[in-house]
Amino acid sequence: MPSLITPIRRSDVRGPTLYAGFRDDLRRHIIEHKRPRRISIGDRVTVVFENRHTLLFQIEEILRAESILDEDKIGEEIALYNGLMPDGGSLSATLLVELAPDADARRELGALVGLDEHLVAHVGPHAIRAAFEPGRSTAERISAVQYVRFPLSTEALRALRTDGTVVVLEIDHPAYQHRTICPPATRASLAADYD
Predict the structure, then answer these.
(1) Is the pTM of this model over 0.90?
(2) What is the pLDDT of residues 100-114, one digit of tens each?
(3) CA neighbours closer than 13 Å in the CB half-sphere of residue 60
């Protein structure tokens, strides 16, 4: 079985027809798998750490939702999601800004401009500032969905793989300051990606 940071190949993807037969079981499995990997930072920001399981699920879901059967388009989706795959030198995550249904999205997202300079993962003594995917924000507002990487030094990866290391996610933005101590299950799940 490939490691959880190994890129997805075409042979890993079942496609809409075959996927329908095991979708419900896989969805239940992915919900459980994501539970320790989904971390709320305050009341509006959630970070979901990605790996091979979560990204393969997203590929299958998008192919199903858009009825994609064309091999070239399937290849494009695989390439897109492989770009979000963590690697031996980084954690990868999707950051979601969750707004209330009645919120003024323009105002709320505008208040978070610069968020890309203010997300830090603390892995034991290592403070790791997130690197955001470019092009998902302007001077006036940010996208509600962001893709981020936390570059890991050899020492930070060693700390992540060490039982008992505390992992903390922090946002130190002037308009949004929150800090979340992740449960031990989060560290264990992230460390397992590197086994």
Answers:
(1) yes
(2) 899 999 999 999 999
(3) 22
